[in-house]
Amino acid sequence: MKRFLAAERALRTAAPHALLDAARSVLAEQYGAEEIELFMADYSLTVLQPVSVLPHTLEPVSVHNTTVGRAFGSQKPHHEERSGGRTRLHLPVSVRGDRLGVLSVTLPEAAAREWESELAEIADVLGHEVLVAERDTDLYLQTRRKDRLTLAAEMQWQLLPGRSCSRPEYDLGAQLEPAYAIFGDNFDWSATADRLTLYVTNGMGEGIEASLLTNLAINALRNARRAGISIADQAALADQAVYAHYRGRCYLSVLMFDFDLVTGHASVVDAGSPQLLRLRSGTVEHVTFDAQLPLGMFEETDYVAQDFHVEPGDRLVFVSDGVHGVASPKGEAYGDTALARAIHSTRLLPAAEVPRAILRELTGHRGEALADDDALVVCLDWRGRPPAA
Fold this sequence. Notes:
Elements: H1 2-13, H2 19-31, E1 34-41, E2 47-50, E3 61-62, H3 67-74, E4 78-82, E5 86-95, E6 98-108, H4 109-114, H5 116-133, H6 139-143, H7 151-159, E7 164-167, E8 170-177, E9 185-191, E10 195-203, H8 207-226, H9 231-246, E11 252-260, E12 265-271, E13 275-280, E14 283-287, E15 306-309, E16 315-319, H10 321-324, H11 335-345, H12 354-366, E17 375-382
Helix pairs in contact: 1-2, 1-5, 7-8, 8-9
């Protein structure tokens, strides 16, 4: 415990840009660890980028076929045997289910097994400190990019709550593509003790204009939500904000949910093109709601919430029109049939892995053609409130 407290103190008191240096120093001193490296997942979730400063000494590693990537994907420590009785221990770095990267350390084999749980907790502490440090340094945000982000994509990624989230009642995962040039699609979520609010949005237009529209709408929705009003009134106030600025020239589609974590009942506002598919008891079905006008299309639109119920074991997959409307080289739309097949084929993956896996299948459907629209997938695995002890 003294070792752990010393490591925790070192990370909490380190300068924002010096977290890796602090981790290297304290892990070497307290645990005898060597070759300590921190890898951050890039925006496309295809590689893990090493945190380093010039001159760079490490190459990115693949998420899909490496030992570091295996720890990231499984979210469990992974042991890699080294010569001389030593073990390379790869530890997931995450915060409340939001997967940030992997901390890798080399130790004697016996020490790696003895201290694995302690070191896993230290990796969690490091994850929290990275998120806090991002307020004051660009180092970790720069590390996450393997290519240059467009300005529109920079704005969109900064607007997001994270890419995954986990609580006893649910797991959430989401992904946007093309990750380095996204401009209009977005998602947002927020939870209290008893409620989860989820928005899936699809803004019209391209580039900066689409990103500005989405930024206005999301912040209007957040402002209304934080005022404690109903989901229908959230939509109405955001609609007014978008219309006041654009006067109907631009508007934004949104699918809004307000879940009761205890009962599984939800209020829903369907204002546009994002769609929902549900996997229940092995069957995928397209869930439809009464369509209402997108936000900002007309002045002072009234919105009505509809009732919806989710059951323990349900998987909900939300997609933008950049997914279900994508055409193959022969002109065939991706559509519900292909989506259902993709949802079935990914049913054993955790929620955080599902969006990227579906988007990979979408790329195969599209062929070599470049994407001409954003693509967004959000996956919600519902467990419901565990029974009181």
